[in-house]
Structure formats: structure tokens, C-alpha cells
Amino acid sequence: MFGFAVATAACTFSACDNEAKDVVEPAAIAQTDSQNGAIISGQYIVVLKKDENLRMSASATYAQRVGMVREIGKNILEENGVKDFKIEQTYGLTVAGMAVRLSESEAAALRSDPRVDYIEPDRIVMLGKPGTGGGGTTGQEVPYGITRVGSASGAGKTAWVIDTGIDLDHPDLNVDLSRSVTMFTSGRDAESANDLNGHGSHVAGTIAAKNNTTGVIGVAYDATVVAVKVLDARGSGSYSGVIAGVEYVAANASSGDVANMSLGGPVSKALDDAILAAAGKGIKFALAAGNESTDANNSSPAHVNHANVYTVSAMNNTDTFASFSNYGNPPVDFCAPGVSIKSTWKDGGYNTISGTSMASPHVAGLLLLGNIATDGTVKGDPDGTPDPIAHR
């Protein structure tokens, strides 16, 4: 399970017993029935070659680009004998392509079309079962992670949270309602970018919770957050929907803005290419390394490397590497607090959860404030090359 968190527990699995005297590290606990990374049967992401057929004026709008790709895509499908097709998503900026339902034989035929660059199966992205959010707080507290990495005003800065949405009227968050969007087209998650899960709101709070008199404070406190909902109330979505979210950010964000992605799964060239293209426009990405206790090079988007892309592992409050965190140098750039992190939650609440999902937004906040410095290295990094600890 990649880039998610559940409610913090005192002990996990066999890590503690009745005679244990030490406090056991809370874990990002995976659901045993998780479908994260599972192939969506019959659904494919088709990426086209950017040749003369797809050339368009630099002044073309994003809608014009998407429209052009959609028409070319429809022609390619029809010419290859694909009937009764439904294009689920169309991409025209970071990658040129579409998500479409196909049979195996239809997909094979398309792979032979000289206008097609590559085809890959669409996959499920699924977070762990969400924890329970608490109510409001009395007074304002500074979570230990914020103290560890440092904080400052992020007023006037913008972070794009590609996640489960954000609690749009949370009193501790400055949410840009006009630019917040949902990538879902049916069901209750299609109604708005409001967070029905909690995960995205938690990420947003660590980045930018207000410096006021209640709740918590974020790394780049008072910054603006934009919800880009690609995961539903269950924390579930698809790679094709995540790519659509990256496309939306690439089309609407400004150079210097920051996007956080606390999600992922098996390697996807289409997702990787989308992020690389968006990063090339000057948008900075903070990516969760993942929670499988394995090499982050095996996960997308965690393994993406670019000057504007930062992959983040997790540690606890003693600067010790979190047992659940993925590792690897490259792609990991920094380590940040990810164990027992308190932040904002859905329905105006607050919650304390763990995961590399919680480490990544610490770095996203620092990126909003400027260049990242470091303060020591994490203890117990399993790859033998201790990650530098991100700091303001």
C-alpha cells in the first residue's frame, strides 16, 4: 500500500505484546484486502506520439489541445476497428493521449499503429481505510513535525493537493474554491472537490494550516491550497484520473507553485511522463516515497527524478527512519516527519495519523517557502545512505 495513512495505534500486529515495555512506533497499516495497483480490466491508457499530427500553436488553449487529441484519438480507434468505445479521459498537455475501454485484441491492434507511442493498462489507486477524525481543538498547537522542519508565512503562495479533495470550509484552511476541482464524473464525489475521506485535508493542513488561535499550524502557514480530487470517499481512484489531475495542475498552476502527491503504486510510464512534463513548466512536486518498506524505485510516482521533483521518506520524532517507509537514493531526496502527525481533517476536524503521506506535505510546505536546507540525517535508513532531513 502506497502513500496513505490510518489512525495511529499504540502497537501493530506482532510488534508488541503484554510484556512489552517500549512504546511501539505507530504504523501506516495496509488493508489486507487492498486493491491498490490492481489492473482495471479492459481499461487502457493510450499515449500518442507527439508528431506533426499533434502540432499546435503555443497559444492554443488547454481545451483546444484536449479537443484535438480527442478527435485524433477517435479517428485512430475507428480506423483500428474499435467499436462502441467510450473515452474516459483525454490528455493534451503533459501527455497526448486518452483512457479508453478496449478488448485485448483491440489494444494489440492499437500498439501496432504508428501514431501510438505506448499503451499501458489502467490501474486502481487506493489508500488505506481512513481513520476517524476528531472535533475541534482548544487553542492552537504546533505539531512536532512543524517544529522539526521549521515554518513561516506562506501567504500569497499556492499548493495544489492531488488527493481526496480538501474540506472546503475548514476554518483552519485557506481553500481556493474557484480553482478546486473533482476529476470524478459520477457519484457523490463528482458533486464537488469537498473531501469525504479526510486524507487530502490532512495533507493540506500540514502544508498550510492557518496561524490563528485554534487548531494546528502548517509549514507554510496561511498559504492557499487548491483541491484536485482524484480519489473518492473510500480513498480510491485510477491512474487515468490521477494523470487528469496532474494535467489540470499543469494547465492552471503557475511556475513556483507546489503540488503534493501522497499516493501511488506500481510503475506507470504515463503518470511519470505527466509529472515530468508538469515539472518542466516550473511546478514543484513533493511525492510520498510509499509505505511498503521497500525500494521506492519500484513505485510511481515516487521514483520520478527531476530538478523540480522531490521524493520524501518518513521518520519519527527522534529522527529515526519509520519502519513502514520506502527508501532508496535515488529517488528519495529528503526525509521528514511522518509518524503520529496531527493535522486538519474532514468536517472541520483534526486527526493524528502516520505514513509517508504525512512526510511529503512537510516538504511541500518548505518548497513554498523557497529552497530547502537540511538539518542532519535520519537514523536507521535501511539503504545505508541516510536521507538528509528537510529543514527551512
Short description:
The protein is α/β, with parallel strands linked by helices and 392 residues long. The chain has helices at residues 62-79, 104-111, 144-149, 199-208, 239-252, 269-279, 356-369; strands at 39-48, 87-92, 96-101, 116-126, 158-163, 174-175, 181-182, 224-229, 236-238, 258-261, 265-266, 284-288, 299-300, 309-315, 332-337, 341-344, 350-353, 373-377, 388-391.
SSE inventory with pairings:
Elements: E1 39-48, H1 62-79, E2 87-92, E3 96-101, H2 104-111, E4 116-126, H3 144-149, E5 158-163, E6 174-175, E7 181-182, H4 199-208, E8 224-229, E9 236-238, H5 239-252, E10 258-261, E11 265-266, H6 269-279, E12 284-288, E13 299-300, E14 309-315, E15 332-337, E16 341-344, E17 350-353, H7 356-369, E18 373-377, E19 388-391
Parallel strand pairs: 5-8, 5-10, 6-8, 7-8, 10-12, 12-14, 14-15
Antiparallel strand pairs: 1-3, 1-4, 2-3, 4-9, 11-13, 16-17, 18-19
